[in-house]
## 1
Amino acid sequence: MLSAMNLLDRQSARRHDEAYLNQLLAAPQTQLIALVGAKPVIRSNAERTAATLATIDPVVCPGGPPKLDDVMFLGVDTTTGTALFARSFTAEQAQALDPQGATLAPAVDLRSLAMQGVLAPQELGTAATAAALQAWHDSARFCGRCAAPTVSRNGGWSRHCGTCNVSHFPRTDPVVIMLVTAGDKCVLARQSAFPENMVSAIAGFLEPGETIETAVIRETEEEIGIRVHDVTYLASQPWPFPHTLMIGCRAETTHHPLKVDPSELESAQWVSRQDTRRMLANTHPDGLWVPGPHAIARTLISLFAQEKI
Amino acid sequence: MLSAMNLLDRQSARRHDEAYLNQLLAAPQTQLIALVGAKPVIRSNAERTAATLATIDPVVCPGGPPKLDDVMFLGVDTTTGTALFARSFTAEQAQALDPQGATLAPAVDLRSLAMQGVLAPQELGTAATAAALQAWHDSARFCGRCAAPTVSRNGGWSRHCGTCNVSHFPRTDPVVIMLVTAGDKCVLARQSAFPENMVSAIAGFLEPGETIETAVIRETEEEIGIRVHDVTYLASQPWPFPHTLMIGCRAETTHHPLKVDPSELESAQWVSRQDTRRMLANTHPDGLWVPGPHAIARTLISLFAQEKI
């Protein structure tokens, strides 16, 4: 029932080939990633310290063998040749996958699992793809131009409106996430929705007409009242809540006092390199901690703690 | 009728304040950027070597003074205090802005004007914001979840579905554009839609679940059959066709032979640094040329020509 994920070849040039996709869907090796709504079902140990995506054989699929219109083609495992699809189930159907309920964690936990770093990076990427695609399907069932129903095409990578004769494509929202630094200090902040004592880098949606750099400058000024003078791109990460691309940057400043926007943040503070090391090691005297491995915020904070930025 | 654009303060925290926006809309200084559909109307000299966005005074607006639901609030000019909105007009209404038709260029020319570099960077950013927002409005008139009509909110920065009680936000599609390099050569390619003899860097949409770097690797392999081993972010640019964020990278490789995907590209070739200089200077013996200033492709190619990458 479970399979380890290797590097996936998305085979985007073959998504239009329905005969090929149907052949893959019927192949004995093929696996389906199970979603409930747009949230992947994951399998974890009791302590929730390790987890994998729950996959199932299409021939034992609840509700019968899936049709091409119902699934999303994620790609072919380059090592094993196994094709991977994803499909959304009802909560009741998902329950049937694991009658004992012993190891299947509710999909709602993916965000915290991701932030705690218990899902391997490749699996997080696959989960992000499936979850982002499904969330987009759910939001694009009708044509935004004419209100006619749309249908899934290209193995779930587009939806077509027959009335407008227009194709709609999956949505990815760019978000800038920036570690604001001034010498040996950086800014870490809390949103009210964060788990207790967790702090992180500040972030916000990039708006139409902005570059990555101007979005970083605007968001930093809005959220903590700081004007930054130098922005450096560091890394990016897909984040399936619901379909986001996190663009991680360092933003340097010489201005120190923070003016926190209470509509965006609960609090924000300057933190020394030494304190970032304590937060990363879970030894901070006030119990403050930062997001786990595979969350891009931790990558940014670790680079700072290690004096690499 | 025309105004020079300075740095705009987007005032995103005040977009929900209808009284404030109505007050700005009625202020004597306030200007409207005119769009036809989602395409900005521009004013240029006869040779099309210089252009500005066409703006109008709301009190002489064709069809009467605009209502808040019909306009998009772009921000306040930080130098002059002038508020800037954008509004879409019919082609006939736009015609009335310039009865002689001497200097108003059809909006459809914005892309080539942008690629030829005749619009100043700040104006291109403002145009990108207005065009991207309007294109998104046109595509989001009905709720994709339930097909009910949506209404504009927050000065045009969201649309609300009263049936789902859900807000929809503007869409920005991340695109990776990469200069593939191997030592002193880079890859320049042609799409069949390009103007004659123009070549550029290759590009493609980032897909759900990808990082910037994995999108660059996948697209390069798909389009020219090259596996790149190192990806470096260089710069980004908003591109309003219809609502794109161009993410410019250098992608290094050691593999030389190109295998062009004919469904994506007309041709692709390895070009020496010396030849990139000739293309930038319009002195290439075969007449090949590259996109103009303010197009991010030219930024990437110029960095290579100048041996900065």
## 2
Amino acid sequence: MARLDPALQALALDPVPERNRNDWSSLDPQSPVALFRPRTTEDVAAIMTAAHTTGTVVVPQGGLTGLSGGARPIEGGVALSLERMTGVIDVDEAASTMTVWAGTPLEVIQKAAEERGLYFSLDLGARGSCAIGGNVSTNAGGNRVIRYGMARDLVLGMEVVLPDGTVLTNLNKMMKNNTGYDLKQLFIGAEGTLGIITRLVLKLHPLPGATHAAVLGAASYDAVLNMLTAARRGLGPNLSAFEVMWPDYWNIAMRAEGVRSPLAGEHAFYVLIESQGTDEGIDGARFEKFLEALFEQGVIEDGAMSQSLSDVKAFWATRDAAAEFKALLGPHMAYDVSMSVGRMDEYAQACRTRLARDVPGCLSCYYGHIGDGNLHLLAWVPGDAAQPQAEISKVVYEIIRDFGGSISAEHGIGLTKKPYLSYSRSPEELALMARIKAALDPKGILNPGKVIDAPLPATEDRT
Amino acid sequence: MARLDPALQALALDPVPERNRNDWSSLDPQSPVALFRPRTTEDVAAIMTAAHTTGTVVVPQGGLTGLSGGARPIEGGVALSLERMTGVIDVDEAASTMTVWAGTPLEVIQKAAEERGLYFSLDLGARGSCAIGGNVSTNAGGNRVIRYGMARDLVLGMEVVLPDGTVLTNLNKMMKNNTGYDLKQLFIGAEGTLGIITRLVLKLHPLPGATHAAVLGAASYDAVLNMLTAARRGLGPNLSAFEVMWPDYWNIAMRAEGVRSPLAGEHAFYVLIESQGTDEGIDGARFEKFLEALFEQGVIEDGAMSQSLSDVKAFWATRDAAAEFKALLGPHMAYDVSMSVGRMDEYAQACRTRLARDVPGCLSCYYGHIGDGNLHLLAWVPGDAAQPQAEISKVVYEIIRDFGGSISAEHGIGLTKKPYLSYSRSPEELALMARIKAALDPKGILNPGKVIDAPLPATEDRT
């Protein structure tokens, strides 16, 4: 650090606040050598140029809400937080785009869009804390991917600082732009290992004019799949969420505060379907017609349709109850996997059985964004002892590997899932990732060791 | 070539057919030294391994319908056509995906989806001839990007052979998969310079149950922009096309065979709006309500709404008439640019004026996928003399540069637009593209000199 420019040193904050020593992963905190809080892209470029020259390791930080350790500082390295680079720069209504600084919290963006009758569709629980730069760097997903796609699908333009301090600025607002390699794709989902995103042009949608939802009980997974096909056809592009909860999840959710079952009786599967339309009358009628057809076909055992937006909220409370499970279950492990939609119940059954068999006393429960092929699962051994993390992860990920699924649907790899990355990606893919990393960051100074193993070069190589 | 394996030599076709000597660009044909037509991914890998070892230049070919020269052979190099690697491998209805060989014609894929009540949304004029591998390699767009996105948005999984013969197989069917770098993004839109796509997993949508369209006349570009905002809000995600035609285009289209004006009178702008819904009754009523509101707001001067699918087809005939303009106009230059939606008419005016001023006798006409920010324009000097290509391109692209637009919205760069790439991309971006190319193809053997200038290394370096 001694070789950094004195002007840059002045940007460093000392002592480093507690919050910048970790993200939301369960890893131990790690203090960085220094914390930089640049105000401009030029500041970021100057810091990276100096870091590149001196071989200093830099870990970029956004809202620090990541669950995989991607923003956790590295011993001996500095942290670079985007927390001062916030705010909406421009809303272009004709192009339906918003240009923002990367440190802007997601919720600020959502509200700025809403104020103009527009909609930024990315949404997740940490919306008040997470930063859009982090959302894009981790290719965040969330509840409405089935309709609007992941963060990747919402990025039109980007400014990014490369590990050597080069600034790439392409604040493109156009949906169609085939002028050479689409470089921004490299940085989306790279978890801050290839560059530091400083500005973004985001794609907006029209603000939905009407939202309807239903909670439905089904007797079999086949019935759930039929329902998904029917929802895709009957609701078309209005379909904005298709969430499935297994009874093991549902029964815990019913014990969470403020959650009441909209359904009488017990079912093998509980499905939450949401439709976002433009017109209360037209789209309400469409939703009702769709549900009636499902009943007539005998696909549903029981169902409740929202009569108001507060019903929609209440339905989501069953799905969002997972956030309160810590109080109900005590310490537990949370997983985020994806696989072929058709095999999800088979996976849940296999995982439940093998966890109970191979990890003494282990319970588990299942729920997720089934329309996207994304399953969440919680696993825990009741009691006060430390959770057998490695044993549980082994079972969860080994079955995913056997199913040809993904060990991370939306939470990324960071540090905590890196040991299992080879379960979902081939040696050839991992080798190409390393080749890309080396091409963009030959000195291995930007968030090294995250996502893929790119060992820190020896000190003498880093000058 | 002498050092290729004899078994591979047997795969080569001699003599090379006329069609494999060029694509649909206006460049002169170039015969490759040999033409390979592999049947399997292993064949492709073996050819690339041999080519890498011997330093042989390889140009991949799909349906050869590209307009920018990306698939045109290179002097002294071989061509590798995917024409024998065709067919649908798998349709997964629960996941709503289709797995195909890269040489499969687009239209075959569209029909295979339709047979199962599903929809592959990519569509363009060359559908019967173009291959999906080429569509993805050029990130093709087409008519319904405003709703479904570009080819990039329709690719979930990919198998690709790298320049050194390494096979990367990731036939992912999941919408959410954040396991390290999303490598497939590298190859989408890279025009065959980074790898040869052999298989693809494509995202399908439900087959639209109801299609409605209208042709509307507007008095000003502001009215067109108001119409676009109203269409986004009023039709929501049903909005599947928003095409605008300037009078110079419209008046030529009206002279094309089989095209009749659905509107009486003359207008400053002609707009074609299409809506794809799920239900004839519900979505027809919505479309009518939307049009009525436009009339009431005084945004439209005149309009015609489709009463049947044959009306929809007839409306599209006005937009598709461009394919017949060669007979009407004689030789002409076609451009495909994109820019901020709000400034398109300003661009059209500037371009029309400067072409008339700087290129003696030059006429031009304007139309495009305005909802996507994509403008097409035709320019020509009437008569039998050769078109002043360089002079016309200079005007078209210089104004695009001044507008901060893109010199290629959907047709790619290939050879013909390479001289102008710096008009849309910065030196830093071009340098990073070259770095990526060098990282994936260190010997510069795969489609070298396309998209970016990566000069062929000297022969002694290529062994």
